[in-house]
Amino acid sequence: MKKILFVMMGVLALLIGAYPLIYAFVESKYTFLGSKSPELLHSIIWKTAFFIHITFGGLALFVGWRQFGRSFRTQYMRIHRNIGMFYVVAVTLSSVSAIYMGFYANGGLVSAMGFICLGLIWLLTTLAALAEIRKGNIIRHQQLMTYSYACTFAAVTLRLWLPLLKNITGDPMLSYLVVAWLCWIPNLLVAYFINKKTVAI
Question: What is the DSSP-derived secondary structure letter of residue 170?
Answer without folding.
Answer: S
